[in-house]
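Example record

One chain of 264 residues, shown exactly as stored in the release files.
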Amino acid sequence: MSAVLNDVKPGTFRFLPKPEFKEIVIYLAAWSVLGLGSIPSQDVFQRSMSSNSVNTAVRSCYIAAGLYLTVAMIPLFISLCVRQLYPEFLNGDTQLALPAIVLSHAALPVQILFFGSLLSAIMSTTSSAMLAPAAIFSENLVRPLFGHRLEDKQFLTITRISVLVFSAIATGIACLFSNIYELVGISSILSLVSLFAPLVFGLYWKRSSSGGALLSMVSGILVWLVAKQLDLSWPSLVPALLVSIVMMIVGSLIWKDKVPYDNC
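Predicted structure tokens for this chain:
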């Protein structure tokens, strides 16, 4: 352990940012990508809503956070060992370093547990990520357009076709990115700048409206895309999130829902 820890770059294990405004903003932006961006995401939200009580949902979040800070540190430390054991992996695809170490040094039962848990995590998240947009598309967009003219069998067929369409879109996006870390980060940022503000204001602000939510989602995504092209010195999610919050408030004040919040 001493050889590995002494080999890392200075500041690798620095937890808090420097006492500078820009450093603090970048630090909070990095935490918000998964800390806030995962709140409205399907994989986290689905499991929280599936809890049998509020206390179970809250406790499970704290337990998961504890596991992130303990068990999840083990593969991170193993990855740090790559510089000492297999420096040639740094010249290739670094994402393959951890599986290669497991195959080289772990016993067969450990290998089965490692790759089994890895595949189960990927498949469970993938299945829910494909079913969720298909269900939302068919239930919230298609059904209101057709109303009672759409039979249950037809609605089921549309939902199944939507699953195939969204699966093809997701496969195409995944093929465009070779780095899974970058892809996960982009997906979390996308949910942060588009869904976080409507979800939070919808839960805690009685004057929030559907018009404000739509304006918040569209404006947040557009500002994020523009900010990425401008190559700002600040993280592109910072102005996008701020605009999403402001547009949620402005849109809700301008376009009010016909049904009062208390009667929903």
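Notes: Residues 179-264 form one domain.
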